[in-house]
Design a protein that fits this description.
Helices cover 37% and strands 18% of the residues. By secondary structure, the chain is an alpha/beta fold. The protein folds into two domains: 79 residues; 273 residues, Metallo-dependent phosphatases (Purple Acid Phosphatase, chain A, domain 2). It is elongated and about 125 Å long.
Length: 372
């Protein structure tokens, strides 16, 4: 069998001659007749298979043509598929959306020396790097604030100082490699914070800068940590007190000190609980700090003062993590030999930044990266 010009199958001349000869004779030998019928049957089966393949090919071509047409239409209309919202974003001071910006400062460890050779070149830290990173902290915190201001009004900046701002002298190893005494580093951090606050006042255009303060466990003058008298033995509490007095005549700056472990701070109708984080007991484990933090938060929320707490903000663990009800801050000192020994996850030097919007709560969580 062959195809004609219309793509139809036709009998070959030889096949037509056989059929005509069969009709004329009326009969043929049985053997030839059986062979003839076998050939016709094979040709018919082959024709049916080819016909099925041909129909399948036509369907595939139709499907591909449809797909190509769809892709062509998408490509031509790509710039107009997503249309702007009907209302323009509420921006700047004329907008109705109101937010507060938060920059979390903790675990600066001024005075600590990190030798790159002790951490496989992953980090380095000295007083020069310390000053460079603190400068980046304030610059980038304001930069992120201005980014968010494209969609909300921000008149209040919260600079949370959550402890371990100095490395201190609590261990022999720290004293051996310290780049200065606890007193010298306290004075240095005081100067750095003054520069940062003045920078925010001058460039930030804020009506208020709120500074809730918590002392850490490194900046103490005792061998063992204290509970009820921790504030009395803290270099950081002394530093916060000096800073509060320095800005007491500036109505835009508001310090909030506490002698206790927790520092509660109200934002719109939400309560924030600031603390250093060392009261959360974590001795390692597969789940990380999440489980012990959730347990501690749940327990603190049972107290009358902790009821309806919206967020816990803390440092201490040098880990940038968060959950529905808490945020853990990173560190400015970065990865060190102690973290390597503890098999802690590597994390670059960074601090937390976020905003709290009046109607929607926590928004725009981000990092303030402190490396180049």
């Amino acid at each position: 069998m062959t195809k004609d010009g219309n793509n139809r199958f036709r009998l070959t001349p030889e096949e037509e001659e056989i059929i005509l000869h069969r009709r004329e004779l009326g009969s043929v030998p049985a053997k030839e007749m059986v062979q003839y019928d076998r050939n016709v049957s094979k040709l018919g089966a082959k024709y049916s298979e080819l016909r099925r393949k041909y129909q399948r090919a036509l369907k595939e071509l139709d499907a591909r043509d449809s797909s190509l047409e769809t892709l062509w239409n998408l490509e031509n209309s790509r710039k107009t598929r997503i249309k702007p919202v009907s209302k323009k974003p509420r921006v700047g001071k004329g907008g109705k959306s109101q937010s507060w910006a938060f920059a979390i400062a903790s675990d600066w460890h001024a005075g600590e020396y990190v030798d790159p050779d002790t951490v496989s070149g992953l980090n380095a830290f000295d007083l020069e790097i310390f000053q460079k990173r603190t400068k980046l902290f304030f610059q980038r915190a304001l930069y992120l604030t201005d980014l968010v201001r494209a969609g909300t009004k921000i008149d209040v900046f919260v600079l949370a100082l959550l402890g371990d701002m100095i490395s201190g002298e609590i261990h022999d190893e720290i004293r051996e490699e310290a780049l200065g005494s606890a007193t010298e580093m306290t004075a240095l951090v005081t100067d750095v914070l003054c520069d940062g606050i003045d920078f925010l006042l001058k460039e930030g255009k804020f009506d208020h800068i709120c500074i809730p303060c918590s002392f850490g466990n490194h900046g103490r003058n005792t061998k063992e940590t204290r509970s009820s008298t921790a504030w009395k033995t803290s270099y950081e509490y002394l530093m916060y007190s000096f800073l509060q007095k320095l800005y007491m005549n500036d109505e835009r700056v508001h310090f909030q000190l506490t002698k206790g472990y927790h520092n509660y701070f109200d934002v719109f109708d939400r309560r924030i609980r600031f603390h250093h984080g060392d009261a959360i007991r974590y001795a390692g484990g597969v789940g990380g700090i999440t489980i012990p933090v959730n347990k501690a938060v749940a327990q603190w929320n049972k107290a009358p003062s902790g009821r309806n707490t919206y967020l816990d903000i803390f440092g201490h663990y040098h880990q940038s993590k968060s959950d529905n009800c808490w945020i853990s801050n990173g560190s400015l000192v970065g990865y060190n030999a102690y973290a390597l020994k503890l098999k802690a996850d590597y994390e670059p030097p960074r601090q937390q930044f976020f905003t709290i919007e009046k109607d929607h709560g926590l928004t725009f969580p981000s990092y303030i990266f402190l490396d180049d």
